[in-house]
Design brief:
Blueprint (H helix, E strand, L loop, with lengths): L2 H17 L6 H9 L1 H4 L2 E5 L2 E5 L12 E4 L5 E4 L6 E5 L2 H10 L13 H10 L3
Antiparallel strand pairs: 1-2, 3-4, 4-5
Helix pairs in contact: 2-4
Length: about 130
């Protein structure tokens, strides 16, 4: 098994756990999981927000927009930083599609490791 395969296995296990969780809107998780480019990223939840990381361990990458529920319904796509807002989305599917539109140019399967290790790998193997 390669490191890439292991990262994919860890990522899939995290998605399966999240699909059974009540920590975030289930329709949102299902919509994000249905998007192949999001499904390859490591999902994590904080404050009922759905985040995506290009690595599987803490600390995660913080370069992908995240999705937050809005009071009264719908979602806000924000980020990657807390000071940035991409915009509102009426449905979970639209929110997931907006995140896909704003993915970094190089955004492959989640790396097995943390963001520091990923940065080292990217510096030694620029694409």
């Amino acid at each position: 098994m390669t490191t890439d395969d292991a990262g994919g296995d860890v990522t899939e296990a995290a998605w399966q756990k999240l699909l059974r969780s009540d920590r975030v809107d289930s329709a949102l998780v299902q919509a994000a999981y249905a998007e192949p480019r999001l499904r390859q990223l490591f999902p994590w939840v904080g404050m009922w927000e759905l985040h995506f990381s290009r690595c599987t361990e803490h600390p995660p990458t913080w370069d992908i927009p995240y999705i937050a529920p809005l009071k009264g319904g719908g979602f806000l796509v924000a980020g990657p930083s807390r000071e940035q807002s991409v915009g509102p989305a009426e449905s979970a599917e639209t929110a997931a599609a907006i995140v896909v539109e704003h993915l970094p140019a190089v955004c492959g399967p989640a790396f097995l490791g943390n963001r520091h290790e990923l940065a080292e790998k990217e510096q030694s193997n620029p694409q």
